[in-house]
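Lab notes, practical 5.
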Amino acid sequence: MVIYFARLILMGGRRLYIQRHLESQVREASEFYPVVMVCGQRQVGKSTMLNHIKEEGRRYITLDDGNARRLAEKDAALFFETYGYPLLIDEFQRVPSILLEMKRIVDQKALDGEDNSGMYWLTGSQKFKMMKDVSESLTGRIAVFDMSGLSAAEIEEREAVFFHPALENLRQRVQNYHPKNVHEIYERIFKGGMPKLIISNWDRERFYMDYVNTSLERDIKQLALVGKLGEFYDFLVFMAARTSMELKYSEIAGAIGISAPTAKEWVSILERSGIIFILRPYYNNITSRLVKTPKMYFLDTGLAAYLCRWPNAETLERGAMDGAFFETYVVSEIVKSYYNAGKRPDLYYYRDIDGKEIDLLLVEGDRMYPMEIKKAKMPNHADKNFSVLGKLKMDVQPGVILCMADELLPYSRDTWYFPVAAI
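Output from the prediction step:
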């Protein structure tokens, strides 16, 4: 039986590693799949986590290393002969063609009647399911996980449970959380969830400047051969300033001075790189009065705040974008909880042509859970649009108001306040 090592490392009272909720998912998948991949934007801790939980004897190689990359490109068979298995390959997307040889190796292992589970662990800075012409190579042989920066639950060492708005789950979730006031929430929003910023005294401004200028630009060049990085930076700033808003490609194109198809491709780069989450509108065939335009959220609020040049948390809290960043924080924390559980978030938002909107919908079969996000402590009339869901012929469950409440409290018989700090 494979033995893994995962621990919270302390030095001088300071955490050097925060245990990730995804660890157990990776370990379990490695018992059943030949290949396990963790995808996500750079600096979120993919390789750090895998190095911490890998068993003794698993080698590590990064394809950011020029020598290893050249070998993988020229002779994939020799690459695998050289490094053997079990093997952890970091930034595999630099040479995606190695997947074909990997498939041959794991299939041969199975044909020989040998156990091929856990042979290869991979990390990638692109979403695997969105990579062209490679996802088919390992169909049925690979477990793929998305990973984002640290969630509030990970930072606070809370239980690894994905957020579900059913009342019994909400009651369980508020039992062991750390209450926070609105200033503390905005401090978390401003700082973001990049592990290096959480566990060290690294200068935030310096970190994000380096992140944009090096890691991000390098991936951009690889993904789409963007020739005008200045325009792309303007695009990044524009997108950050519109986090939590509707995604309109013509508006982006007009503001940046690019074509609408280019704007669509650049948005795809951000989604593929795990920088943004696109929230699709809920739509069914029962009514034609529903809006079909998606919304966009940055998954790291610290990066968005940096790009918008907010100087500190206090200014952000009192500024014109306070609501947009609060909503972005809530959505990103919910999305992270699903990623960390190895689940796909079946999240949507509702808007109709009459202007009625509901911030979040969780849809499970014929059940629908409406959620509103409000910065206030105990907002009034936050459930005013929930009644419009009746026309959708769905089983609408009690609604939830995600707000600055201190505890789980009933607003009405069918609606509950839930503290954002407990997500």
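Observations recorded by the TA: The mean pLDDT is 90. Residues 204-224 form the longest helix (21 residues).
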